[in-house]
């Protein structure tokens, strides 16, 4: 039997099955070279976060290929956040209030502050705003 690959199409239904809330999948541009997908999900409790994370680790172990990297886990000692780096996919499991505080979706989708400033026309900026200072 050929097992499905541990990829985005496999992972998102697993997260839904595990009752992950507010699943956000961000596809990173290739020049980022950090990972292909960044996934942020909310859980209903610390126990729920840890259960989802452990289940995803178990699924990775069974579905990974020889060339797939070892996982890196952050936040094991915390109550409100866990992060697992699966190589091409990085997953954050957060309590809703922690997720709201860190706003990772904005961090990864808005671009850098400099990029945002570069897209603004000088006419839209206040007169005393110094633009392009390096």
Q: Features of this protein?
A:
alpha+beta; five-stranded mixed sheet; 134 residues; 5 strands
Question: If you had to describe this structure to a student in words, what would you say it looks like?
Answer:
This protein is an alpha+beta fold and 134 residues long. It is built from five helices and five strands; from the N terminus they run H-E-E-H-E-E-E-H-H-H.
Radius of gyration: 18 Å
Distance between the termini: 58 Å
Quote the beta fraction: 15-25%
Assembly annotation = single chain
Number of helices: 5
C-alpha geometry: globular
> How would you state the average pLDDT, rounded?
86
Helicity range of the residues?
25-40%
The major beta sheet can be summarized as: 5 strands, mixed
Low-confidence stretches: none
Write down the secondary-structure element order: HEEHEEEHHH
**Structural class of the secondary elements?**
alpha+beta
SSE blueprint:
Blueprint: H1 8-17, E1 21-27, E2 37-42, H2 46-63, E3 72-74, E4 81-85, E5 89-94, H3 96-102, H4 104-109, H5 113-119
Parallel strand pairs: 2-5
Antiparallel strand pairs: 1-2, 3-4, 4-5
Task: Offer a quick outline of the entry.
With 134 residues, the chain is an alpha+beta fold. 36% of the residues lie in helices and 20% in strands.
């Amino acid at each position: 039997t050929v097992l499905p690959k541990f990829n985005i199409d496999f992972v998102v239904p697993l997260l839904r099955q595990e009752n992950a809330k507010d699943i956000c999948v961000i596809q990173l541009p290739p020049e980022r070279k950090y990972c292909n997908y960044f996934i942020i999900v909310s859980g209903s409790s610390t126990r729920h976060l840890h259960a989802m994370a452990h289940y995803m680790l178990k699924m990775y172990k069974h579905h990974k290929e020889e060339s797939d990297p070892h996982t890196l886990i952050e936040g094991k000692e915390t109550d409100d956040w866990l992060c697992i780096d699966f190589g091409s996919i990085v997953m954050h499991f957060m309590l809703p209030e922690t997720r709201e505080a860190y706003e990772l979706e904005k961090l990864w989708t808005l671009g850098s502050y400099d990029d945002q400033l570069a897209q603004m026309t000088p006419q839209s900026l206040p007169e005393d705003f110094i633009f392009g200072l390096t």
